[in-house]
Amino acid sequence: MELALDVPCPVCEGSGKNTEPGIEHIGEEEYRKRKRAVRFLLAPPVAARINEIADEWEELKQYAAERGDDEVLGFVDYLQLREGDSVITRAYVTANTHPDCEPCKGKGRELTEQGKMVLAFIKRWPPE
Question: What's the predicted TM-score (pTM) here?
């Protein structure tokens, strides 16, 4: 008998992040700011600049992999290094910073019925 105590959260698919937060999750002002940032990033000149930087980053990742270097900056860090504190950087961070998933509280996993039973047992242990 296989005992599965938890499974990936069906809402966030195991990421622990709510990638499509609504007004009820992040507030009206933050929601509007996020939507403006997404629209800004979709503008052709901005999208072209982001794609150019993403291509550079991919080349650097490949170069590092060929050299056996495992420590490569994440894309956001590379973007901040290349662009500094620019409007593009702030918009990218705003549009791509996701709040925690509410059902799994950012863990990306949820307990199965077996897991809930085991947890309930552990909470009652030791018997008095």
Answer: 0.67
